[in-house]
Design a protein that fits this description.
Radius of gyration of chain A: 19 Å
Order of helices and strands of chain B: EHEHEEHE
CATH superfamily of chain B: Beta-grasp domain
Largest sheet of chain A: 4 strands, antiparallel
CATH topology of chain B: Ubiquitin-like (UB roll)
Structural class of chain B: alpha+beta
CATH class of chain A: Mainly Beta
Strand content of chain B: 15-25%
Largest interface: A-B, 17 and 20 residues
Distance between the termini of chain A: 7 Å
Number of helices of chain A: 1
Number of strands of chain B: 5
Helix content of chain A: under 10%
Structural class of chain A: mainly beta
CATH topology of chain A: Methylamine Dehydrogenase, Chain H
CATH class of chain B: Alpha Beta
Number of domains of chain B: 1
Number of domains of chain A: 1
Distance between the termini of chain B: 36 Å
Largest sheet of chain B: 5 strands, mixed
Strand content of chain A: 35-45%
Strand order of the largest sheet of chain B: 2-1-5-3-4
Oligomer: heterodimer
CATH architecture of chain B: Roll
Number of helices of chain B: 3
Amino acid sequence: MSSVRVLVGTKKGAFVLTADGARKDWKVSGPFFAGWEIYHLKGSPVDPNRLYASQSNSWFGQLIQRSDDGGSSWEPVGNKFAYDGVPGTHQWYDGTPHPWEFKRVWHLEPSLTDAETVYAGVEDAALFKSTDGGANWSELAGLRGHGSGPHWQPGAGGMCLHTIILDPANAGRMYIAISAAGTFRTDDAGASWKPINKGLVSGTMPDPTAEVGHCVHHVTMHRARPDVLFMQKHWDVMRSDDAGDNWHEVSGNLPTDFGFAIDVHAHEPETLYVVPIKSDSEHYPLEGKLQVWRSRTGGNEWEPLTKGLPQQDCYVNVLRDAMSVDTLDECGVYFGTSGGQVYASSNAGDTWAPIVRDLPAVMSVEVQTLP
Amino acid sequence: MMRVVLPQHLRTLAGVGAEISLEISAPITIRRVLDAIEASYPMLRGTIRDYSTGQRRAFLRFFACEEDWSHEPLDKELPAPVADGREPLLIIGAIAGG
């Protein structure tokens, strides 16, 4: 019988939640790396027992941890993230030049074909790659070296490269997203990059349709249709049908189109999930009601999913990497909150139940479906 | 043998107790102590001083014989009681954060 492993990164450690395919009885393991911020952890699609975790805090900096037994044990691997060449400057919040400084790893994306290869998205924004299981890291400097780099500016959470998507049909193609520079694509395995933000409109920018500068919160793709991308921008839910070359808004009837998390159903490429958040100054759900909204039409037409979720006095946030899906026949959907709850639906969002309620603030949720 | 007291998180990371002992030849300076720590405990590389700049992390301080050595030159010789192991070098994390 299949089983599910949910990898949860929190403000004070990592947790591993496991259940069989029924997804009713859960075992909670952890905290691992107690007291550290775990921005993200994710397993290799090639070897599901190979996990990578980003461990950091303000005192001791960045560590990368690796597990070869599905999270039962871990070992620290390489943590040297050195920018290629002279780092140069990007824009600071006030528009003045600011030196590129490594702060932390926001996202780890294991290769689709090699368990030893993993990508890291870091703050200040850059993309690193390891081909030896995380022991050594080298920057794919073509991204930061894109001519627009000196004009990138941090979002409120820092200038982070938070999204990495590998194209399952095209080994040379990947997508990344940076707050607040926007989305970029490479077609040559990271050697060169182009901004793909045409169609995004950000009213807070001096030029609302500029090529770069958009605060993209998260981007997702269905494996079966790698040219179709969905984006939760700071405001606006967006869709591209041509690998990011052009975007159009699909916020439709959402009650607010601000948010962070967005994901796609495992078996229905036109079924999307977002968690609407009130605004950029009030990072919690509207009217204290925690709701996932689902579109079965690839956007524009959305329905609230509320069964099992708190519908009063709920003022948590759901961060950009804190939603994921499993690939069981009836798709499971999972998300974690800043209040420490991890909610799961084993019926594509129709009903929800908490797996755990009282973890530290959840920063990331990744799901592995195990044979 | 000289002695170093590490912050709790680094003890856990290195799998050591409150204090570690290091064999370092003279002159015993903070730079040479950090070099010896990182050689003996590679998992601590980058956690006490920044990889790229070599600078002490901002939320850590060095204390020797009840004196704050955080801003002393890295190549200045530590006091004799620390160098000969009668007193430990303290690496202390700031009490801050949530």
